[in-house]
Specification:
Structural class: alpha/beta
Order of helices and strands: EEHHEHEHEHHEEHHHE
Low-confidence stretches: 1-5
Number of helices: 9
Shape: globular
Largest sheet: 8 strands, mixed
Strand order of the largest sheet: 1-7-8-6-5-2-3-4
Distance between the termini: 26 Å
């Protein structure tokens, strides 16, 4: 226990080889857990990114038909910085993703394609952080996070979405954990120190998005944000900067 009577964070499991990260938008993973991804790929693990949208509604000054391809390329560039070669897009509409069978099916199909042992997603709860006045989460994050948790089970059941078998996607019951980044109730963590500089460079690849978001110098903004985010869990992780996750076992 720490001095605040909050449980220390446990080191994330390392006995896995393939992970699949499923989020709503370009930049979600870079804000959420790129330092951990960098550490994992350095260790020889395979990580694949799947995004529900291309982020086409994310920049007010750029129309969706121009914004989507721009943000897709920024996402591919940012993934490459942390050793991720495969980035897929499910082509749901940015800003209006609906939780439901279609979303669950698409994510279950991705899990069957890539056969991960670890699945990553982003905060699926209504708010960022706990307690009164916590910032409201977006419907896209809630829908994709919740659908990912559900799809991890759907992927292993041949009688759910049997049409996937007709497409050559046999059931995959090998998901051992689903890890939720940016949770208000984290349980596990990864040391952010080795991957932090690459996480900064990875998020900086989303330059068009960042320049539309803030007037602050992009590198200052990114480094400040990620340094602050990884330091918040350090008192529960032996003083080390950390990427924290809420880990669900399967």
């Amino acid at each position: 226990m720490t001095g605040t009577d909050v449980d220390d964070l446990t080191e994330m499991p390392g006995d896995w080889q393939r992970a699949l990260a499923v989020v709503a938008h370009p930049d979600d993973l870079e804000y959420g857990c790129a330092a951990a991804v960098a550490a994992w790929t350095d260790a020889g693990k395979e990580v694949v990114y799947v995004l529900a949208t291309r982020g086409e509604a994310g920049i007010d000054s750029i129309a969706p038909d121009a914004c989507g391809p721009l943000r897709e390329q920024e996402q591919r560039d940012s993934a490459a910085v942390v050793g991720v070669d495969t980035v897929e897009f499910l082509d749901h509409r940015d800003g209006v993703i609906e939780y439901g069978l279609g979303l669950r099916r698409d994510i279950a199909a991705a899990i069957r394609r890539h056969r991960p042992e670890l699945v990553l997603t982003l905060n699926h709860r209504d708010t960022w952080g706990g307690g009164p006045g916590a910032p409201w989460n977006t419907p896209d994050h809630v829908a994709v996070g919740r659908a990912t948790l559900d799809a991890a089970g759907d992927a292993g059941n041949r009688w759910i979405f049997p049409e996937l078998i007709d497409q050559g996607l046999e059931p995959w019951n090998g998901v051992r954990w689903v890890a939720v980044a940016a949770s208000s109730t984290p349980t596990h963590a990864v040391d952010a120190t080795p991957g932090l500089d690459r996480a900064v460079r990875s998020l900086l690849c989303h330059r068009a998005y960042i320049e539309g978001l803030t007037d602050q110098d992009p590198e200052e903004y990114v480094r400040s944000f990620l340094t602050g985010a990884t330091s918040r869990a350090s008192d529960r992780f032996g003083g080390r900067p950390a990427v924290a996750f809420e880990l669900f076992g399967r």
